Amino acid sequence: MLSIVTLISGRGSNFEAIVKTAQKEAWPVIFSGVIANHSAAKGLDFARSEGIPAFTVEHRAHATRESFDEVLIHKIDQLGADLVVLAGFMRILTPQFIRHFEGRLINIHPALLPQFPGLHTHERALEAGVKTHGATVHFVTEGVDEGPIICQASVPVLADDSADTLAARVLSAEHQIYPRAVKWFLDGRLRIEGNQVKLSPPEPQFFKYE
Ligand code: GAR
To answer: Is the Cβ–Cβ distance between 110 and 137 less than 8 Å?
Structure first.
């Protein structure tokens, strides 16, 4: 049975969507642990309520990113992760961490990459006046938000949207596509070719939500 370790920084709703889909569809998977970078992350409560081991590695207790990431690597390895899922993990990871887990480290980003890498994506989408926004699940490589794309979901931007209403629409799309991407990985259906991800057998990797 494959093992998933999830890293979170906050609410953990994507983590929850993945766990609930796994339960509903009876995936042969073990959620070996959830790690947050501070103890107030709400998602830790959900993990505990599901009996999933919940840990905190306080980033503030570390003088450097390197020493924080070393502890994280050790913890994730102890848990025996086949797949590391970043679900709203708001720390930039060191090249050392990324190389250690390369090919089994995935992230969800709240924008249609390569549009709007980085932070405050919903505000920036509204400022740019785009008509379509969305979310991207991708393998993590050393360039921030640049790795091979596994799948994407688009949502419309409405005339009266605020950053909050847009974020909520994107988040509900995230909850649809992140579990799908994780399942594809677990089923061994993803192959990285250059900066592309091939899904076999093929099926659409772009989802349009109206
Ligand atoms: C999600 O919208 C996710 O895409 C975003 O943080 C939110 C976490 O929500 N991630 C990033 O911005 C990563 N740079 P959640 O804790 O409820 O899953």
So the answer is: no
- Residue 133 designated active-site: no
Q: Which atom of ligand 1 is nearest to the CA of 43?
A: 16
Cα 85 to ligand 1 centroid, rounded to whole Å? 12
Query: Contact 97/77 with Cβ under 8 angstroms?
Result: no
- 47, burial (CB in 10 Å: exposed 0-12, middle 13-18, buried 19+): buried
| Neighbouring C-beta atoms of residue 197, cutoff 10 Å | 22
Neighbours of 158 (CB within 10 A): 11
ipTM score above 0.85? yes
The CB of 14 under 6 Å from ligand 1? The reply is yes
In whole angstroms, give the CA distance from residue 120 to residue 126: 10
Cα 147 to middle of ligand 1, angstroms = 17
Which pLDDT tens digit goes with each residue over 105-155?
999 999 999 999 999 999 999 999 999 999 999 999 998 899 999 999 999
What token pair was written down for 131? Answer: 């008509």
**Could you tell me the domains of the chain?**
1-101 (3.40.50.170), 110-135+150-210 (3.40.50.170)
Integer angstrom CA distances of residue 158 from 116, 129, 132, 184, 208: 18, 10, 9, 31, 15
What pLDDT was estimated at residue 119? 96
For the whole model, what pTM was predicted?
Answer: 0.98
